[in-house]
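[Meeting: bench + compute handoff]

Bench side (C.D.) handed over the final construct sequence. Compute side (W.E.) agreed to return the predicted structure before the next meeting so the bench team could plan truncations. Sequence as handed over:
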Amino acid sequence: MAKTFCLLLLVVCRWITAHRQNVIHMSQQWNEEDDFERGEELNNPATTAQKPVQKAFSFASYYGDHMVLQKAPQQATIWGYHPDPGARVIVQVKGRKVYNAVVDELGVWKVLLEAESSAGPFSITAMIETQTIHLNDILFGDVWLCSGQSNMAFTLDMAFNGSEEMEEAKNYQDIRVFAVDRKRSAQPLSDLESVLEKWSLPSNATLGHTSQYFSAICWLYGKYLYQKLGYPIGLVDTTWGGTPIEQWMSADALKKCGDAPQGKESANAVIEALTADVVNDKVASGRIEQDLGQLWNAMVHPFLPMTIYGVIWDQGENDAAPPSYRDNYNCTFPTMIADWRSKFSQASHGQTRTDFPFGFVQIGANRQDATISHGYPDIRWHQTADYGYVPNPKMTNVFMAVSLDITDFNSPFGPVHTRDKEDIAYRLFLGGLDVAYNISSLWKGPLPVNITHLPDTLVLNYGTTWTLELRQTEGFELCCSLNGGFSCQLSGGKAWWIPTPITASNTTHVELYAGVCGADQNILGLRYAWRLTPCQLKQCAIYSKQNALPAPPFVAYPPGLSSGETSSFALNWRKPVRIQ
C-alpha cells in the first residue's frame, strides 16, 4: 500500500511540475502574441497557436466538398494539417498545376493556387506518401462573408416567403453555403472549433434550420448577385444574435477606440437595459456576457487566410445603450471595417483586397413608438461615421441599405426582427452592384444639398439626382434656440427639438414650416427620421421615385438661421456632423 501511494505521489508531483512549466510556456507565448502590431500571426494560419496542432493529415475545417474558392484575378489558398513537420504534401487541382508544400514546425501546410477564371467544377487532391485526401465539386466564384447579430442570423425559414425561397433554392446550385458554429475564444484561433453547416448545395434542408442556419439576408443577397452576375457565389454565415460590436473586434481595433467599454459588469448593464426595450432577441440563445474580441477570435480570425471578395454586416442594436457604447460606435464600426480589411489582406498574402467591399444594413425600427429619439437614431448616424451616407471619406468602398421603414410590429420574433428580409437584401444588393462591382446603380435615397430660409419657411433642395416622392408630411424637426441656447442636446431648456410639417413639395424640393420656432428664437438644427421607429411600413416622408428607396435619416446644424431673415447655404456632407 505504501509503495503504491509513493508511486502515485511521484506521478502527481511530476504532473504538477510539467503543468506549471506548460502554463509558464503558454504565458510567454501569449505575451508574444499580444503584440499584434508585428502581424506575425498572419504569416501562417496556425501561428496564433504557437505549438504543433497534432492533427492527422487533413484540410482545415472550412474546406470541404461543394465549396466555392475565390476566382481570378484573386488567388485562393488551400491549407491543412499534418502531424510530421518537414513532410512533403503534393496538392493538385485536376487539369491544372501541381503544387508542393512542406509541413512547417506547427504541423501546417499550405499552397497558394494560381488565379482561376473558370467556374469549374474541379476536384482538388492533397497527397502524402501513404494517404490522399480529396475536395470534390469545387467551384470558383466570389466568396462573401456575412456577419453580425440577430438580424443577420435570422434564418430563411423565419422570413416572409421563406418556404417559397427554400423551394426555389434548388434552381441555384452554383450558390454554396457554409455556417459557423457559435463559439468564443480568449485568444485568436487558427481554425474553427466546430462547423454548424459544412459547405452545402442550397435546399430546404440546408437553408431552413430555425435560428441556426441559414441567414436569410446572406442567402437573398447572394441569390440576387448570382442572378445578375451569372457565376458561382460562396456564402459564409458567421453570426451570433444579441452581440455588441466590441465582441467582433480584434485587440488592435479595440485599442484604437480607447474608450470602448470594458468588463463583464458594464456588459451586463447593457444587456439588462436592452433586453426589455431594444433587443427582445429570441434569435439569440439567451443573454451573453461581453467578452471583448472573443467572437472575432473564434468566428472570424480563422478565416483570415481564406481569400474573400467582400463582407456584409447587420449589427448595432446591442450598442444602442448605454451612451458609452452608443457614442463610441462612430469609432468602433469604421475601425472594425478597416481592421478586418487589413488583417484579411495580410493573412491571404494580399489576395483579399485591402479595401474589399463592405456592405451593411443601417439598423431598422423596433416597437411602435414614435416618441423615442435616442439610441437607435444615434447608432444609425454613427454607422456612417457621422456623415449620413456611405461611401464617405472615412468609410471608403462601403455601401448601406436603409431599413428604418421596413417595420414588422407583429413579428413573432419581436418587432426588432422584421421578417421582410427580401427588401432589405435587395437594397443591400443595389449598393453592392455599384460599390463592389462597378455596375452603375442608383442605390441611395435622397439627401438635401441646399437649404433656403424664407420667413416662416425652410426650402430643402434635393438636387437633380433624385425624383422625390412624398408619402406623408411628418418626419422633420427643427431645433429652436432661445436666449443663447447653443446645443440641442445640452442647453438645459434653452434649445429643443420641435416637429415641423411639410407644407409643399415637388420632384426636387420640400418646404417646411419654420414658424414652429418663435419670432424670438433661432433655428439651430434640422433633422429627419430621428426616431426609434420613424414611420409605418414604407410610409416615411421622402422616397426616390426611381428606385422606391427611402431618404436616410440626417441631422444638420445650419449657421445663422434667424427668424424673419432670408438666407441660403449648401449642406456640406463631406465633413462629419457631430450630434449636438
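W.E. noted at the follow-up: The radius of gyration is 27 Å. C.D. will use this when planning the next construct.
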